[in-house]
Amino acid sequence: MLNTEKLRRRVRIKENIPLYAMLIVPLLVFLIFSYVPMLGTVIAFKDYRFIDGILGSDWVGLRNFKMIFAQPQTVSVIRNTFVISLLTLIVSFPFPIMLAILLNEVRSKWFKKASQTVLYLPHFFSWIIVGGIIINIFSVNNGPINFIIEYFGGEPIQFMFNHPAWMSIYLGSGIWKDTGFNCIIYLAALSSIDPTYYEAAVMDGANKWKQITKVTLPCLLPTIILTFILATGKIMEVGFDRIYVLQNPMVKDISEVVSTFIYDVGIRSGDFSLTTAMGLFDSVISLILVLTANQIAKKSGNALF
Q1: Dihedral angle sign, alpha carbons of residues 191, 196, 199, 201
Q2: Global pTM?
């Protein structure tokens, strides 16, 4: 009996050799580009000197982590990162869900395809292009928004220098750029809902709003929880391009985040140990947030792991 099972396993492995061979390439890519660079995080515990290299630099224990909290700038950087990411998550997260539900209700196929194409398009623009468009739109000199304000007798407004206006523009630009593309996963989930659920709801006299709240949203809930957990893991990752393009000295106190701080201190000033320590601290916080969100999701039976 045991020999028969072993023989079957060998036959199964032999039949799937082409699949195992195809798996080697992505595994090597992950190993080389995702796991090997993690060894570099060791310089967070060292006084890294380029001449001595990673192995030759002196160990300093937790000194770099203590320096992070000893500087008022780093504390404000972590606070800005957390605030901007949390606002982005709260404000941006519902839009792809609402857009997917609205697109799902469109019955005209050509209009639906045309709308999806137009909505996906901004995602493929780089933040350099999007940032340039936004800065020009809200510019005091020849910007269309201030042109309209002045046309009606108002005074031009420095939108990009005003803290609340800058934050609103930052959040709005992210929604405009990524909502269309992010709704793809919800559209895929909506396509898997059994049409008989809607037929039963119509038989019971449910209007469109009732169908959305009683059928669509409950069926989407596992996908929503999954994407929320993944988004929670990135709550400390603001990204570099978007914030760096829209940033200016007048809003530096609210727009300086971990990614731009690492660029300024790590790349420009050459303090690689301090910035690696901050990046490691950032990753640990993200891991804790993911585990917390997953534990909360477990109570609804939709945990990721």
Answers
A1: negative
A2: 0.77
Name the maximum alpha-carbon separation found in the chain: 91
Helix (H) or strand (E) holding 59: strand 58-59
- Cβ(152)–Cβ(199) below 8 Å: no
Q: What is the pLDDT of residues 162-215, one digit of tens each?
A: 889 999 999 998 899 888 888 888 988 888 888 888 888 888 888 888 888 888
Q: Is residue 226 a contact partner of residue 294, using CB atoms and an 8 Å limit?
A: no
Cα gap 17→71, rounded to integer Å? 55
One-character DSSP codes across 215-236:
IIHHHHHHHHHHHHHHHHHTTT
Looking up tokens 């200016």 gives: 248
For tokens 């901050």, what's the residue?
278
As given in the structure block, the two tokens for residue 157 are 């407004």
Residues ≥6 apart with Cβ < 8 Å to 150: 156
What b/e string do you get for 3-31 counting C-beta neighbours within 10 Å, with b at 16 or more?
Answer: eeeeeeeeeeeeeeeeeeeeeeeeeeeee
Residue 72 CA, chain-centre distance (Å), reads: 27
Question: What single string gives the DSSP state of each residue in 29-50?
Answer: HHIIIIIGGGGGGGGGGEE--T
**Three-state secondary-structure class, residue 58:** strand
Q: Among 148, 147, 146, which residue's Cα sits nearest to residue 159? A: 146
Cβ-contact 293, 117 below 8 angstroms: no
- Distance CA(293)–CA(285), nearest Å, equals 12
Whats the size of the chain, residue-wise? 305
SS3 132: helix
Exposure b/e, 228-249, CB count within 10 A at least 16 = b: bbebbbebbebbeebbbbbbee
